[in-house]
Design a protein that fits this description.
This is DUF4468 domain-containing protein. It comes from Christiangramia sediminis. The protein has four helices and eight strands, in the order αββααββββββα. By secondary structure, the protein is of the alpha/beta class. The protein has a six-stranded mixed beta sheet. Strands 7-8 form a two-stranded parallel ribbon. About 7% of the residues have low confidence.
Amino acid sequence: MRIFIVLFLFPALLSAQKIADMFTLSSAGFEDSVIREYPGKSDSELFLATKRWADNIISNSSDAISREIDDQYLEYKVFVPQAFSIEDNGRTFTWDAMFDLAFKFKDENIRFDVEIVELSSPDAPTFQIVGGMNDWAFYAENNQPYPLTSDARKIMEEIVNDFIRGVSAYVNRDAEIPPKK
């Protein structure tokens, strides 16, 4: 009986994901989902508004789309050039960011999921989310944030939270764009 319960509950535990009000960059990346409710909007309306947002905001959105299920799911690879810069010892380093941005539409809601695919630069050191003493990273190996990269971490959070604000503006064309927090 115990084995049955464990086998039955284990997949549910694996699929459980935390929900947040906005994206926060942790040592595990953007690990939470953000869900926004749009009362009175059908899955189809939410899907089309998100596609309109992508067509106007994402360069080459038709090439950037990686998965699409009509009225249910959209996923894009989003490239953000010069996403953030860090000044260190009189030198400024700039990195580009590539995100995997997914939207799931269900019951007047959009679930937003973001993953950092790559942080790159042609002339800056390699950057990672978690790194050692000699690495460029947002967090140390003990999961403590590096002070030098705290502004860059906030910029990355603003970028991905702006995705939500932008989509919301397209869904609610008559509504005001929510202010940044």
